[in-house]
Amino acid sequence: MLEVRDIDVFYGASQALKKVSLSADKGRVTCVMGRNGVGKTTLMRAVAGQQAVRAGEVAWEGKDIRGLACHERAKLGIAYVPQGRDVFSQLTVLENLKTGFSVLPRNQRTIPEEIFDLFPVLKQMLRRRGGDLSGGQQQQLAIGRALVTRPKLLILDEPTEGIQPSIIKDIQNVISLLRDRGDMAILLVEQYFEFARDLADNYVVMDRGEIVLSGLGAEMEEAEVRRYIAV
Asked: Where are the domains of the chain?
């Protein structure tokens, strides 16, 4: 569904990504790993339309979408859960979920019951403000908000960052369920090796704006990958 081919991204005169390529397919999780500052988030922003691409191609279902704004990509089925979650702190959980309606036609502006099946805590906290939730609850809300848009591609940028182990396990189970459903591609940025290893159908490892390792998750060599993600 998604093909990123040899993209270059710059911040001013500084090159952040150099000839980066990856793909994401329905029913599969593609994990992107690497230390802080190597370009993982820049890559996700480039796919989502929040960062301009200088050269190369971002193809979605066979069409180059580099010229499309982020809201136009969202209408095509690309949902982005950013690092840090970006929950609207003054809006309630229900209002946060409803912000996903903005890219949907009027007849689809409902919250799928599946979201509450995946994240029961959200149903219990619909009237609570987003800023009053714990970090783990905010992460669940951010993923739920993305799922409201009925995505074909779900981008998750470090969903385990700063949350408790029990919720990490819940999020891992949700990603597995969404993958196994078979109608969604998942692009996952992660530094927590065990989490990435257990979910990855495909993986890439980045260093200094380039991809230095890639392959099938089942063939991942732990020692080699850890060499590039250890601090």
From this structure: 2-88+151-229
Tell me the whole-structure pTM to 2 decimals: 0.94
Confidence of residue 162 (pLDDT cuts 50, 70, 90): confident
User: How confident is residue 84, by pLDDT bands cut at 50, 70 and 90?
Assistant: confident
Q: Given this model, what pLDDT does residue 230 score?
A: 80
Distance between CA atoms of residues 10 and 46, nearest Å: 11
Rg of the chain over all Cα atoms, to the nearest angstrom: 17
Q: Which fold has domain 2-88+151-229?
A: Rossmann fold (3.40.50)
Are the C-beta atoms of residues 220 and 33 closer than 8 Å to each other?
Answer: no
| SS3 readout for the chain | CEEEEEEEEEECCEEEEEEEEEEECCCCEEEEECCCCCCHHHHHHHHHCCCCCCEEEEEECCEECCCCCHHHHHHHCEEEECCCCCCCCCCEHHHHHHHHHHHCCHHHCCCCHHHHHHCHHHHHCCCCEHHHCCHHHHHHHHHHHHHHCCCCEEEEECCCCCCCHHHHHHHHHHHHHHHHHCCCEEEEECCCHHHHHHHCCEEEEEECCEEEEEEEHHHCCHHHHHHHHCC
In the predicted model, is pLDDT for residue 220 greater than 80? yes
pLDDT tens string 38-71: 999 999 999 999 999 999 999 999 999 999 999 9
